[in-house]
Every structure is written in C-alpha cells, then in structure tokens.
Amino acid sequence: GGVIGFNRLVTGHGLGSHWELSQALLLTAIFVTLPGRLLVAAVIVRLLTVRLRPGRYRFGGWTHIRLWCAERVEGILGVAVASGTAWMNLYAAFLGCDIGPGVTLLSPPPASGLLLIGAHSVVESEVDLSGWSVQGDDIVVDWIRIGNLARIGTRSVLPEGVFIGDGSLVEPFSTVVDDVASGVRVAGAPAHEEGPAPLITENPRSLMWRLAYMAAASIPTLPVIVATVADLWIFALTGPTHEHHLGHLFSWGVRWAPGLAVLSLAIYAATLSLIVRIAGRFATPGVHSVRSAAGLASWIIDVTVDRARVLAFPIYGTMAASWWMRALGMRVGPGCEVATVHGQIHLVDVGAESFLADDAVLAPREVLGGHIRLGAVHVERRAFVGNSALVQGGTTLSTGSLVGVSTVAPRHGEPETSYFGVPAREFARSASTAAEESTYRPTQRVRHQRAWVEVTRIVPLIMSIVLAEFTFLLTLRLSDILGFLAVPVVALVLYSMALTAAGVAVGAKWLLVGRVKPGAHSLWTPFVWRNELAWCFIESLALPWFEPTLLATPWFNSFFRALGADIGKGVWLETRYLDEPDLVTIGDGAVISRFADLQTHLFHDRVLRLGPISVGAGSVIGSRTFVLPDARIGDGVVVHAGSLVPRTEDLPDHSSWRGIPVEAAHARIPS
What we know:
By secondary structure, the protein is an alpha/beta fold. It folds into four domains: about 35-195, Hexapeptide repeat proteins (UDP N-Acetylglucosamine Acyltransferase, domain 1); about 220-430, Hexapeptide repeat proteins (UDP N-Acetylglucosamine Acyltransferase, domain 1), CATH 2.160.10.10; about 440-550; about 550-670, UDP N-Acetylglucosamine Acyltransferase, domain 1 (3 Solenoid).
C-alpha cells in the first residue's frame, strides 16, 4: 500500500504503466533497501508509540494494541536484520532510546523506546528487550536500564523495570528477575550472582569500520538478489515479449514456477555457501578486535546463517542437511541429522550419527566490548543437542552425551552423560530399546523412501512463489485501474492470499498425518517424514503469509484450531510454536507470550516421542518459555519468562513458577 500510494503521489499514475528506471530506483531505495525500511519502520513505530509512558495498562486496550501494531511493523519491515550495525543504534535512537557511544546492539530495541544503554555495553543476539509483559488483566510497560561496559549474553531475558549495573555480566540463556549490581556476574534461570564479572574492553570509535559494518548489512541479501536476477533473466528469455493480459502473465508464472523455485533455491544456496565459506577463512578461533577482518567476517556469518533458516528451510532436517552444512563449512560425520542450527558453524566438528535439533546454537560469537572471542566446538559420535540448546566455543561434547532443551552445555562432560537446565545438571536417562534399523542403520530401500518424501518439501515453496507472482501482478493492475483506492483493495488481496496459503497448509496437514496422537515413532519410519513435510507446508507456505500481520489475532487462533489445536475463547496466542497442534489444549483467556514454545515432542535417541500439553484457563506462559510433552498447567498459573516446564510436570491451579527447570516462584496466586 505504501509503494502504491507513494508512487501515485510522485508520478500521478499506477505501478503497472509508464514504469521508469527512476521510479524503480526511488521505490527500491525507500521500501527495499535496509536504510529505507528502517526509516519507514522508525517513522511508523514512533507515531504508534507517541506519548507512551511507563505504567500499567489494560490488557487488550489501546496502549496494548499500539504496541502490538508497532511490533508487527518491525517484523514486516525486517528491522532485526540491522542488528550489530550502526543502523540499529540509529534506529533505536530515533525511537527514543538512550544509546551511549560504542554500544553493540545485536538485538532489536523495544518498540516503546524505553531503553537506556550506557557507553560501550554489549547486548548480544536474541535478548528479550521488549520492555512489557502481561500481568493479570494488565500489561506492564517500563524502562530497561543497562549501565556502562555491561554485557548481556545471547537469548537472555531482561524484564521491564530492571537495572543492570556498570561492568556487570549477564551470562547467555539467563533470566534476570532482580536488579543486577555493578561489577557482578549473574547466570542461570532465574539468574543468581556467580562472583565478579570479567572486564570488557571499550569499543573504540572508527568511522571506517562503522561504515564497513553498515555496508556489510546488505551482504545477507545478496543470495536473494542473485537468485532474483537469474529469475528475471529467464523471464526475459521465455516470457511475453510485449504487453499481455494479466491472465497470460500469470499463466506463464504457473508454468515456470516449479523450475524457477528449484533454480532459485539452488542459486540462493550456492551464493550463501560461498559467502559463508569466504567469511570463514577470516573468522578463526581466538580473540580478535571487533574492528578487524575476523570481527566483521564472524558477524557476516551470524546474520547470513540466521537468514538462511527462512528461505532454505526445506533443506533443514532432511537427508540433504548434512551436505548443506558441509557446504557452509561445518565438518559433519556420516549418518548425522541436522536441523536449523545457528552460530559460527564453520568452527563446528560433528561426529558420526549425532543429532542437532532445531534452533541449537553452536560456537556462538561472543562480543567482549571492543573484542570478540571465537572458539571451536567438537561434538563426538552419537551425541544429541536439543532444541534451543547452547554449546559455547571451546566445548567438547563427549560420545553419547545429551544436552537437553534450552540447556547450556558444560564445557567438558563425561561420555554417555545427559545434561538439563541452566546451569546444566546431570540427569538419568533410560536407554532406548528402539531397533538400530529404525534409528541409525536403515536399509537402502528405507533411505530411498525417505528421500522421495523429502523431495516434495519443495512443493510449498513453489506454491508460495506462485501466490507471490499472482499478488504482484494483480497489484500492478489494480494500481493502474484504481489509483489511491488500490491501497485498501490490495490489503484485502494480501489477506486473501494469507488465508489461501493457510488453507492449503491445513489441508496438507490433514492429508499427510491426519490427527496426531500421543506415541513414539522411530526416525526412519514414514510417520516422522510425513509429519516433517506437513510442518514444512506450515513453515514455508502458511506462516510467511499469515504470521507477520495476523500473529496474536483471532485469525491466528482459528488457523491453529483448523490444524487441530483445542484453543478456548479470548486466548492471546503470540507464538507460532505449537509443534503438533492436535496435542495442544489452551483454556479460555490464557496468554501464550512471544517465542513461547509448546513443544509436544522430544527426539532424543532418534525416537519421536509425542505427548499432550494442557494450559489452563487464565494462565500466562511468559516469553521464551518452553513447555515439554505430557505437562499440565492448571488454571490461573503464571510461568514467568525464560522458564522451562519439564516433561510430565503438573503445575497446580493459581501458582507461580520460574526457572529452567521451573521451581515455585512465590506463594499461591489468589483465585
């Protein structure tokens, strides 16, 4: 809508006619390039949050809606891509945040603008800085204040109203619940004082390196640009040579979509692997200045690998994933299973028949103010790294060891040992009784069967491309016919496409797996492959169209109800992570906060174990909280942010819990 309106205002005609190079460049600069998108996002978010002050506001009220809209705008325009560059600092300052000199901001600031960061401090990636949460019938909005030379580790949670003192360290995966004094190190969920914090160096000012990082922010988009240029070249060779009716253009798109999707994915993957390979030559283990080739290269690897999770999703978790990881520089032994991993993957060595689950972080880049630390990770034979687990540089996972969900792995562990929690604790694990033929050593015939199923994971990507082509061509036509009136019409078209994508994904799910029931299925069995294919339709087709604008709306609830979830009235569902919706029950008025994961399956020992999850009426599941299979959460329960509810846990009504794993937070909540 913005593109149509701006073009009409400047040129006086629609997008589909009199298309000139100057128009294309102007619109690209404003709505496609990173600086342009950040400017548009900053203006809109600033207008939405004007005069927003700390305080308590009614849940679902005007202030809550304004914050929700602002966060949706940031998601649509891809603000997070600027993390770690001066662009992000400028964006945060435009929102009203107080950002000191030399700050490294690798996570997006709160849309409210209520953030203060002192000089030379570091906020690493995926830190929750949202600055608001649900408390009872209200939302609470407040400042987050971070002192000078402080460091906040990756995937930590900082609640609204917290103060982090000068020179303090919040270790990765920590959940802060109280103010942190100056000069101390805190770790764990909930975070506890662990002693004095190591000093970090100041981030020296350098205009040359600041510009280098700002320019490098466009590198993660190069694979998309190269693939798009190839598609346009094919269109120039095979498409209509003169103006045709909309139907003719769409017909061409449908005929060529399968081939273009395969070609685009291949070109995208090849270009991305080339970028990571080249950058990996400079990002070697050791301590380096941020203002160095190693510092810049390691940042490029981080953001490029993270972006790959979206467009290359059909590859992850398949038999081809090991080859894909090798193309990116990871050393992967035979028989490994690799999902959507993050980190400096070129520094990771994975032994034979190991398993890396979704969103695991291996060998992350540690920012120490003006320096970074990179370290190698060795994963020995038949080790298992669970969902969203962290394996830091310099760690060796011994043979047969297991790192549980959202767990920080110990630096050195014993073979055949299992770890769970933050900080990690050893726990007993029952030996698997599944046959080797269905877990590690399948027959050649079974391998071929799985390969044929996984090849079809390209289908939802093809469908998404067809929908995008049709939407683009229809937008051009409508802008010519309707002028400014095309803006609301195109909005309706986009919502129609979102509903179409969601409908196809729902149909595919019921066709492929039907109603999912509790049970256990070995890796090399057809149900597991079909279940992964069904989720690929959701991840690659439905969610890219549906999630950006409809997250936490009644439409989003209806989508998951159609997939089989039992969701009550008035539920606030602000997450996509309902892994097997058939096994999820959410009571009336419950709140499932951003990035919470109702993880209805576990996959250790290469056996998919499925179990139900029940969240009672009026309960609140905090942001970045995991709930594991067979867990029951009673009515009116509060599970605070950054927590993990273990398997088979039963949390009584009107109670409060926090931690990994959860422990009682305080007295019972009045009913």
